[in-house]
Here is the input.
Amino acid sequence: MSVRRFRGLDRHWPAFWTCILAAIVCGAARGETSDSSLPHIVQKEGRYALFVDGAPYLMLGAQVNSSSAWPAMLPRVWPAMEALHVNTVEIPVYWEQIEPQQGQFDFTLVDTLLAEAREHRLRLVLLWFATWKNGSNHYMPPWMKLEHERYPNVIGRDGKEVDSPSPLAGATLQADIAAFRALMTHLKSADLHHTVLMVQVENEPGAWGSVRDYSPAAEKAFAGPVPTEALAAMAKPTDQAAASWQEVFGDDADEFFQVWCVASYVGKVAAAGKEVYPLPLYVNAALRDPVAPRHPPKYEVGGPNDNVFLLWKAAAPAVDVLAPDIYQRETAKYLKALDLYQRPDNPLFIPETMGQGPITRFFYAALGRGAIGYAPFGMDNTRSSPASVAATTEDGITGTAANYQAVAPMSREIARLNLEGKLQTAVEGEPEPNAAQLSAAPVSQGASGPPARVLNFDGWGATIAFGTFARGGPRPQTQPAEPDGRVLIAQLGPNQFLVTGLHARVTFFPTGNADGKTSQYLSVEEGQYENGVFQAARILNGDQTDWGLIFASTPSVLRVSLYTR
Ligand code: DGJ
Here is the structure.
């Protein structure tokens, strides 16, 4: 994985910026992309950030509908993205469109995407809809579809064809490699401003309806020895090198074989593209139930699900991120999915999820787990339920728009604070991991009971209660039908915090050496970051702070300074 380690940047920040600026300016002047100016992923002590233009970047994303990347549709895409306050749009590149005849490429549509995104001051993540889209071959160009023998599908156990391309089809792989390489070559010369931040290789690769390919080629490979890399990845003795998949993996053999074939295939496509233009690459998983997975093939088999993570990492090292498409609505399942993909060997990135209603509080849960980006799906205005309408209600903006409106002006700061391990979040419905803390934490002024969560920082704790609170009143006035409270707190200094949220109340109490001391606000500034500097619009006091820091339906951002005596 092309992830770079981050050492002591904090101390060298001004010099660092000068170098970055010089590199960008010189690179642009020469018409080249210097390596350090390319978007890339940085790792620091198991935490990650996507660096864009030389600094941490939080991807506030949204994905368009599948058929929206056409010039005729774009006028309905950009306004919706602006209404949602996104900074990055995930948008497909269709193999059937860019290679209408074998070997003849047409990148006019890609160029339109680049130009229009730049006009709207948006970045892009390109989705390579190629061999696989939702497990099928539907985006292969017609010249491939009409030569089905040459570019075959998976054959099921019953001998019938499955609506999914075979990962053992060498001609398909070579065609995909050629096309992806052409796309990345084009991007390298056409995207000098780094509008494109990452590329998704394929879309939800794998097969629905068959645990593996049973074609003659697949049967032969299945009976053959397991590759040493697959044995090592799954902590199997590598001296079993001559043993078959069935002998090594028993009941998991069919699934693991299919995963290895798909991951190796996608890994080769990714490597070919990365060789010409090393942008961060990721692969998205059609997630199996993260809490109670059903037996394959009751989920899509082949993609980077949690049980085959290590097979994917070994087979596709050119892929930087394995990412979950999270469509689970239950709190426990959603949070488990986040936990499964936040790993020391993997940056957390959610390329698809739901973007309306209380579910959107999980954006905060993702940030609290260090996510480098987040993107609800289908958020343009090309369908009957436009996102821009869903973004607004009578009592304020909701969902994705509310999240992004608060975070967008400080997205760089949030990404940096997360990389430094200074940021924590809480969402309503998430159990407090340390229940003893709840009863031990000081009860906030006027509160009727223990808080829902306690977050621990250096020298301070924060108690959080969820609900719709009256300013000046002690109790939650109304509880929303579904839990939707969310809070983000980042420690800016020994006694200073950045706080935002919706439908929640936050109070701070001293801990450590100051445990038990009286504390008070020095100031509670309401404002926003502008060009990296917090600008206060007013200082909250009196009724606005005497009952805790109350976050209602309209997002607000506070810089809170505290002291003890
Ligand atoms: C997941 C896929 O990855 C998307 O392209 C889209 O088809 C959505 N499902 C639809 O819910």
Observations:
- The radius of gyration is 25 Å.
